[in-house]
Please model this.
Amino acid sequence: MTARCPSDLSLESHLLDPEHSPIAAHVYGCARCTERLDRMRREGEDFARNVFPLTVDAIERAAARPPWWRRPAFVLPLPAFAAVAAVLLLVRPAGPPDDYVGVKGDAGGLGLTLFTAGPSGVAPLRDGDSIRASAAVRFRVRSSAGCHLWIVSIDDSRTVSRLYPAVADRAEWIVASEQDLPGGAVLDGRLGPERIYALCTPHSLVWPAVESAVRAAAARPASVRAPAPLSDLPPGASWHSLLLEKRP
Amino acid sequence: MESGRSRVAELYGRYGPAVYRRCLRLLRDREAARDATQEVFMRLVKDMARLEDRENVLPWIYRVATNHCLNLIRSDRRHGEAVPSDELSLAAPETSDYPTRSLARDVLARFDEGTQAVAIGVLVDGMEHEELAQALGISRKTVERRLGRFLTAARKLLIGAGS
Model:
């Protein structure tokens, strides 16, 4: 068999529907592909025996779970919301709180505060603060409008990392409020500067676009400490950044 | 699979193996692949209409699983956790020794996830550019551009490593 062997994706398709498979003629006559299919079938059996039974309930629960905006906590009667909003307006101080950290790049009512555990408990970090290189941090964002949020970082090797959402391909929608984000991040242990960005856009921005914008802003040497403004972002985008100096 | 299960469970039984195999291939660890499969599928079931689209579902699943697992690898590396020693080998084990695979991993780790996905798709999975473009939801031109960028930079790195 001299024809090029099909990809794993083609073999997956073949396994799902062998009767209509366009690669059937090849795989039945190709020892290598037969071997690959055998291995894939064994892995499929492993899934059926050891993965499916342990995980199917969680999958079904996830499918049954309504999106967050339809969950009961968010479906309070409007008057209740209005009352809560009125109380907040009455009790909210006119100025920023003591631990407010004003940082570079403020636009569109977006703020970002990082917290980490210190000797006297959890404390906010200020722009340029030193922090243990492997410290854990948490994020608080303040947004004056609902938006799709990314929290990302870039270090002096121009490695861009996604911090929130940690695993998704698209930004997470947040409502207009000040809120602590679930989870957090653990810094990578490398010494040097790391700039953390909060980026909000009216429409969801895919990860490659975010990564490209952040990397472009730090194109010059040592520009993680003094980056150019983020560019090539869609209209209505706002961002905020905070510099951390990672130390031993 | 059990009978009388929900439609979600049926779809999981049908497409779960493909997710598991993809995660196993990238993560090289059964436990990690099991967890990743669950996480990926919990995301997939949020879009049931797409999951029911037999014609186009597989490339989408492949894309979500690939991105998720690459992100896990990146996150593990970033957090300093141990990663399996032969994860993301760029060549079949029988044709390369450990230093070569290790070098390949180090080279790959220098690129963003988009480029990693293209490099793995073409060089590891042996996918055609058109097929990979469809699977990753990008244009064929982007596949070629990313691959070219990867190969150029990888060659420079490997020449540097060899000198």
